[in-house]
């Protein structure tokens, strides 16, 4: 086999192997971001990854998270020295708000809290239900942003 053909075969082999190796890497919630199930009404809804990341992703995100976390305080928009310090108390309010509302029992939704942002993942019955949930959580005290990554799963 010529060196050129060998290089092509090696490149193809690596292109096939690297995604499999990346998928096999262990994932963890390295930053202890709160991740809560808000509802469980759609049995066929797959469990989202939430805040689970690889060690390489954690290393890549660490500096940016430190900068974003403290810039909120430095700009005078946060009372705490790091915006990630709000997440656990905000998530408790998010869980209570969804439970008290009652409109989302027929959905399967998980929420991740990161720097006063709530990321919604899972399944809802309609885009209208997703919009209603985003609107509800946008009104929770100290929530800065709600990110909708929900899928529609009609009955």
UniProtKB/TrEMBL annotation:
The name under which this protein is listed is: BON domain-containing protein
Q: InterPro entries of this UniProt entry?
A: BON_dom (IPR007055)
Superkingdom of the organism of origin: Bacteria
Keyword check for Signal: yes
Q: Which residues form the BON domain?
A: 87-154
- What species is this protein from? Roseateles violae
* Record-linked Pfam families: BON
As given in the record, the signal peptide range reads 1-22
Q: Print the keywords alphabetically.
A: Signal
